[in-house]
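Following up on my earlier message about iron/sulfur cluster. Here are the inputs again, as you asked, copied directly from the submission form:
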Amino acid sequence: MDKKLKILLWKPGVYDMTRGELPTIGLSILATSAINAGHEAVVADHHFSPPPEDKAEEAILDLLDEHKPDILGISAVSYEWTMPRVQAALNAAKERNIQVWLGGPQAVAYSDKLVEDDRLTKIVIGEADGRFNKILEAEEKIIHLGRSPSFDRPTFTAMIDHEELTTYPLFVSRGCHYNCTFCAATKVFGNRWRARELSPELWDEIDQIAVNHPKCKTISIIDDAFTQDMDHAKNFLKEYLRRGYPYQVSVFNVRADYLDEEILLLLKKTGVETLAVGIESADPEVFRMLRKGEKLETIETAIRLIQKAGLVPWLNMVIGLPGDNIEAHRRSLDWVLQFDQPRVIQWNIFSPFRGTMAYDYFVKTGDIEDGFTPPFWGRYEQLPDDGMFDAADFSREEKSLAQLEAFLKCNVPIIILSDKKVRALCKEHGMWDLYEEWRKNAPIKEFLENTVPNKVEKGQESISQEDYNSLMAEFVNDNQYPTDPFVYKTVSP
Ligand code: SF4
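Thanks, got it. Here's what our run produced:
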């Protein structure tokens, strides 16, 4: 090695409802590879640990001045790429002769267009584990790394504010061998499922959490398809339990067709409380078009199995997928309503990722143009979302109202944070009866008492103390609310 390089790895981050949860693992995996190659790496993850929003641009420019890196590595999604602070950082890097490497979803989706940008030195697609030198030495601008033969442990200690980490993201496998039409994950991690060896290296990574991240309370298994080999998942969980780790486990997502009683029991023993299952749409035609490779009946059986095991199924639903419209959405909604409590139902509006079949579908229908960048993913206090884009069969407004109707019928408490907007929409669109039912049945009290303070602490929700006190007084203490939706009652604490 000729020279020890200084590498600054940056996640710009957005001020949305997911900030502050998990650090971006890809940056810390690249940091490992850079450090192993004899260089110096610092990770600034502004999604995990964001500066004040009005100082975000200044923060990255200050970091460039402070660290004087030879290389600025950026991991960005498409929306982040359009943000002024990212463009300002790119311009500043060019002025200072700093190499810029871009990775993450934006690099995967837009390498053909980004290659023209002379501020970028390298566009990196694929897994970075052990690949720092390969990227450094590559002569081409677009580098297709493909799948890595190894799983590097992430060096989260290289991350600014790493001592604040409370949830540790862990890969036990990568990839998924399905190819759902809407899925961005397989574009990033590929279509081959790969197990991580349950080796001393993996257990040592977990052992080191107590040393490096003393505030950590949870391990989050972030695999795309953790249970795709059930024996592997079970062996991991059994050994995890045998070793008696103190961390509660959470699992990002499982496929309904890769579950059985034994694995659910093991998950419960590790502290898993809710288990997310991707359904997306339960309308038979929309579901067929997703090409998920499983049946709705299998999902139904799995949800009941999860409930029987004493876990709460978290049903991920999406509005506005190919083939969806208001009638199909209502069929989907009726299907999920067949499940009694306990269950959590999450309704998101479809955000197309370039390179997927679902994205191509909407380009072909003329509903979006190639290059469409999904707008900012909303904040809780803005729900329902704005509908993403107008489709011939499902307008933005229809999608937004469909989301609101779904929240109300499924008794989702989160819309209490945008209560003024919700009341106005319900009044205007004939949903006031639904609102009143929701008001009676949704677990608003528990949500305000237990969930909101945590979200405020993480900055995912910017409710003021005064508004929070008003909501508590209005919805928890005296159980009253105004019947006129255009008048927002404020109650002094
Ligand atoms: S099962 Fe999940 S990870 Fe696999 S392709 Fe489908 S959505 Fe993507």
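One observation from looking it over: Confidence is low (pLDDT under 50) at residues 482-493. Hope that helps, and feel free to reply on this thread.
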